[in-house]
Amino acid sequence: MRSKFFSAAVLAFLAMGCAAHRSDLDYPAREAIYDQPLEEMWPEVRAFFTRNNLPFEEGQDGLTLETEWRQEFGASKGAGFFHRYRVVGQRESASQGKLQIFRITQGADQAPPPPGSGIGFASAPGQRDMLMEWRVFREVAPRLAKESPAPAAQVARLEESQATPTPISVECGLPIIGLGAQVRPGATMLLGEMHGTREVPRFVAQLACQSAVAGIPVTVGLELPLENQERVDTFLDSAGTEADWHALMESPFWHSPYPDGRSSEAVARLLEQVRQLRSGGLDVDVFAFDHLKASGQQREDAMAATVALQVEASPRRFHVVLTGNIHSRARKGLSWDEGFRPMGLLLEERLRRVVSLDMAYDSGTAWICSVDSKGVKDRLDCGVKRAKGKDNGDRFFVHTWDGVNAEGYHGVFYVGRVSASAPVARSGDGRPGEDGKSSAQEGQGAVSE
Q1: pLDDT digits 0-9 by tens, 268-307
Q2: Residue 373 pLDDT
Q3: Please, what CATH class does the domain formed by 4-144 belong to?
Q4: Quick check: 208 and 156 in contact, CB under 8 A?
Q5: Contact 176/398 with Cβ under 8 angstroms?
Q6: 213 contacts 175 by C-beta, under 8 angstroms
Q7: Is the pTM of this model over 0.85?
Q8: How far are the Cα atoms of 219, 224, 435 from residue 229, in angstroms, in the given order?
Q9: What CATH class is the domain 179-442?
C-alpha cells in the first residue's frame, strides 16, 4: 500500500497541470521519497534517462549511474562548461527508496572531454541537484504507481523555430538557488554588476536558460549602445558562422580604446550562448539600452525610458537587465550627487514589479577601468585588478530582503569567486576563448592594484 506522502505527492503533481513549470525554478525544501523498495524503482530510473536521451553507464553495484558529458547551453563554439549527472540510489527503509543526484561540472579552463567519454566513478561527487531529483520523481513516480504521467512541463519555445526542446534536453547548468521566487511574466530584475568578470555573464545566461526551460520567455537587457541592436538581432538569428561573428564584431563598441568590461569576452560569449539557446528553440532575446551620447541624469532618464518601453511592450515576458551597479539602484542620491535619480529608481516608479539586486562575490580579479594610476585624470587605466569580496560558497544564488537597503537594493545575486574577462578585441578576430583560455587568464600574472 502506498504511503500517504507518496499518494499526496503524485496527486499534487497530476493536479498541477500547466503550472507544473513552477517546480522547475523553486528549489525543493525536501527530498523526493519513493514508496517502493530501491531495487523495484531502479529499472524505471534507468528508463527515465534512456527516454530523455541521456546515455549512461552503471556502477558495479547496479544502483549507481553516470551520464555522458553535455556542454552547457549546447554546442557553442565559445569556451564553455560541461556537465554530467551521477545518480545514486539509496534505501530510505525496507519499503522505500530515494535518489541523490549530483551534477559534476568541468570548467572552461580545462580541456573539454571527448564526446562519449567514459565514466569515472572515482571522481569528485559534484554538487547536489535536487531539482533534477524531483524532475525524475515527477515522471517516474506515476509510472511506479501504475498511473498516467501528467503532461510534461512545456518550455518557452521560440515560435519560428523548428526545434522542439524539452526541460531535460537543454543543459542550463546547476540550478540557481532562490531564482524561482523572482521569475514571473511581467517582472523585471535589475542586476547591478562590477563590469569585467567571467562569472556575471554566465550567471545571466544560466538564469535565462533556466527560466525559459521552466516555461517563461526571457528578454535580457545589456548595457550596449542602442546603435548595436540591429547587429545583435542579426547575430542572434544567424547560424553563428565566422562571417556572422565578424559582422557583430565590426561595431566600434567592441574596439573602444578604454574598454570597461561591457565589451568583454564574457559578454560576447553571452551573446553566442543566447544565439545557441535560440537555435535550440528556446524563447530568449536580447535588447540594448545604453545611450552613449548622453551623460549624468540625462543618461539615466534615457536608459530607464528604453528599458520601460521594452518591458511594457512585452508584458508576458520576464526581463533581466544587466547594468553597472550605480544605474541599478532603487534609491535617490549618491555621495557626490544627492539629487541623482538612478535608472533603477526611475523604473521602480514606472513599472509594477521591479527588483534590484547588487552583485555579491568571492574575492578574485576583474577587468576594471579606473582613473589612471599615475594621476592623469583625463585618461583611464584599464586592466586586470584585484576584487575583494566575501566567500559564500561556489553556488550561484539570489537572496532578497524585506525592503530596500541604504544602497538602493532589494537583495543580492551571488556568483562565487570572480575572474577577469578581458576585452574581446584582445582575442583578435576569433570567438572569445576558442582555445579554452581567455586573454585575461593569460595575463593574470600581472595584476594591477
Answers
A1: 999 999 999 999 999 999 999 999 999 999 999 999 999 9
A2: 58
A3: alpha beta
A4: no
A5: yes
A6: no
A7: yes
A8: 13, 8, 28
A9: alpha beta
